[in-house]
Amino acid sequence: MGWVNDLLHTFFDFSAMAEVLPQMLSVGLVNTLIISVAATGIGLVVGMIVAIMGISATAWLRIPARIYTDLFRGLPAILTILVIGQGFARFSQSVFGPSPYPLGILALSLIAGAYLGEIFRSGIQSVEAGQLEACRALGMNYAKAMRLVVVPQGVRRVLPALVNQFIGIVKDSSLVYFLGLLSGERELFRVGQDAAVLSGNLSPMVLAGVFYLVITVPLTHLVNHFDRRFRVGRRKAAPVSGLRELDELDAPPLVTGSKA
């Protein structure tokens, strides 16, 4: 059928895919990973600072953290990227040159920091209060107890959410193309879009989508693995208590006295 051939030619033209594949690997994939990893790394630092400020009892620390979180979580990612990319363009040119690449990473980092801050905050607050009290009883100050005991436990509990956030950053990295990246700085989406415009065929865009799936799908399954493992770890004490209850039920009653 003619329409089937048209669809195959439009979306699965393997010659068009093969032509753009070297650029996808050497330029698009490399830049996507650089943007995502750099934004995640900066976002982790910002998020941890925001989380600690957010759980502080001091209002002048807690309120700015809340404002920052609400601002960058409430705005669309594309709006944040454009405002930062265009608003700080002159400053960036004097430091980094004409490339908007660093501003794209900065915008994604600020967005990631807001989400990661909430993830860290929920993880830290999920740790039982008795953990902190035990640390204080052992002579640790608040900062040392948080750094050595509470924060590591909180981060472990939210590890699946952290991986999910990285997946979101990988996908949002495609929005950086709105800033007008240089030829050697294009990410997967921009490489696929440019090739699709030149060839009049959407197959390069489909290939870009395949690369995104190659990155995100294994990470999604990794998240599920961590989630199952942590849930099993939290419940592993339950069967032991259940067996003890059964043993108590099966045990003969204790004889406390004899009938006269």
Would you kindly provide a written description of the structure presented here, covering whatever features stand out?
The protein has 260 residues and is mainly α. It has a domain at 29-186: Orthogonal Bundle (MetI-like fold), CATH 1.10.3720. 80% of the residues lie in helices and 0% in strands. The protein is built from twelve helices and no strands. The chain has helices at residues 2-11, 14-54, 59-74, 77-87, 89-96, 101-125, 129-137, 142-157, 159-172, 188-199, 203-235, 237-250. Helix 2 (14-54) packs antiparallel against helix 3 (59-74). The longest helix is centred in the first third of the chain and has 41 residues, at 14-54. Residues 240-251 and 254-260 have low confidence and may be disordered.
Mean pLDDT: 82
Structural class: mainly alpha
CATH architecture classification of the domain at 29-186 = Orthogonal Bundle
Q: Give the amount of beta strand, in percent.
A: under 5%
